[in-house]
Amino acid sequence: MALVVALVVSLGVAIPAMAASVTVLPEIGITKRINLPPGTTTPASVFTFDFAQVIPAPIVPPATESPGYVVGNTTPAAPAIPSVTINFAADANPLAQVAVPTNLTWPHAGQFSFLITERTPDTTPASTNTWGNNETMNYDENGFILTLNVVNRDGGLVVASGYARPATQSTDDVTVWIPEEKVERIIPGIPGEPGENWVRLPSQIEFVNDFVRRQGPPNGVDPTNAALVVSKQIANDDAFENANLDTLFDFTLTLTAYQRAAVPAVPSEPGPAAPAIPALGLPETAIPSTLAPVIWNTSTNTAVTDLTGRDAIVTTVAADGATATVTFQLKHDEVLLIPTLVAGTTWAVTEAAHANFAPRAELTIGGAATPVLLPGPLATDFGSVNTALSTGDRILTDTGDNDGTTNGNAADFVNRYNSMWDTGLVVSSMPILVALIGATLALAMMVASRSRQRIEQVPAF
Q: Residue 159 — very low, low, confident or very high, per pLDDT cuts 50/70/90?
C-alpha cells in the first residue's frame, strides 16, 4: 500500500528562495538538501542512503532503560531495504527526494525499526563523490530511526503506520544510536483524496549537507584567475590626459562572509513541528585570514612590489573571518587582485573623489557577458567631476565553469580627466568648444557681411 509522509512546514520555510518545488512522492520519502551560499551553483553529485535493521541496545545497570538502538536483527529478521540514491545535475535544484521501498515480504506482523544513514567519505561503503581543490562538501553524519508497524490486512502483511526520529551516535559508544523526538508520522493513503494520498511537502527524513566553492587558485597569485579584480584606467581622449597616467586613486574594498541563520522549526498540522533547517556560514564561508591582496601592472604583466610614493595596502580581517576591509591606491593600467574568496561573499568597492576627474565603472558578476554599468545607462556615461563612485553591495558569484579558472568577478573603474582653463572652459570638452568658436566666427562673418551691404547701399552725394 502506498504510504505518505505527514509534513508540517511550508515550502516557503523549508526551501530557499532559489529552489523550485519538489515532486511529491506517494511513498515514504527521504529528502536531500544541499545548503548553498547565494551565487553558488549546485555541484553534480550522487548521494546514497543505506538501511540497516536495528534493535534496542542492551540495558546496562544501573540504567533501567535501553540507551538507544544498535544494528541487529529480530528473529526472524526483517527484509532488507535496498539502498536508494539521489542524483543532482550541475546547477540543479539543491533539494530533492527519493522514495523508500516498503513493498517487501515481511516475516510476520509486528514492529520493525531501521537506521537510515547517508554515505560519506568515511563510511563503508563510502561516497563516490569527488571534489575539486576549490570545493568543500560537509556531509550530514546523523541518521534517522524509521519504525514501521506491520499488520495483517486483506490476506497479507502490510505497513499500516510508522514514524521517524532523528538519531545521533552516542559519545560513549558509537555503535549506539540515540533517537530524538518524532519528526515524521507515517500513515496509509486515504481513499478519495487527490491522488489517493494526502497532499504534502518533502519528507522530514532530511539529510542536509553544506557546500562551498572558492573562486580563484588554491595557492599563489594568478592574474588570469583571481576571485575578485579591481582595475583602473584613465580615458585617453587627448594629449592633456597622457600627463595624468601616474595619478593615484584611493579605493576601499569591503568584504562580508555569507552567514545564514538556522530556519527555526514551525509547528503545523497535521503532525509535529519539522526540524529546523541548519545554519550555513562560518567557518565554511569565512574570508581567508591571509587575504593577500596584490597590485598587478597589466602593461608589464608583473606584480607591483615597489609602493614608493603611494600608501601601503592596509588589510584588516576580522578574527572570525566574517568581515574584511582593504584600502589601496591604483593608477592607470593597474589592478588589485584578491586571490581567493568563497562564492557568496558580499563585496563592495568605493573609489574616492579625485580633483578634476569624473568616474565610471563596469562590473562583471559571475562571468556574465553583459556588465553592470555605473553610473550608466551607457558605457560612455561618466559621473560628475570630483565625486566618489561605489559599486554598492555585490555577490561574488560562480563563474559558471565550476572550478574558478576565470576572472569572473571584477570592478573596472575608468576616469576622465578634466583640465580647467582660467576661462573656466573644460579642455576635454573640445568638440563643444570648437563648435562654439565656429558659431562665433560664423556670426561675426554674417554681421560683417551685412555691414558691408549697408555701406554699399548708402547713396553717393
A: confident
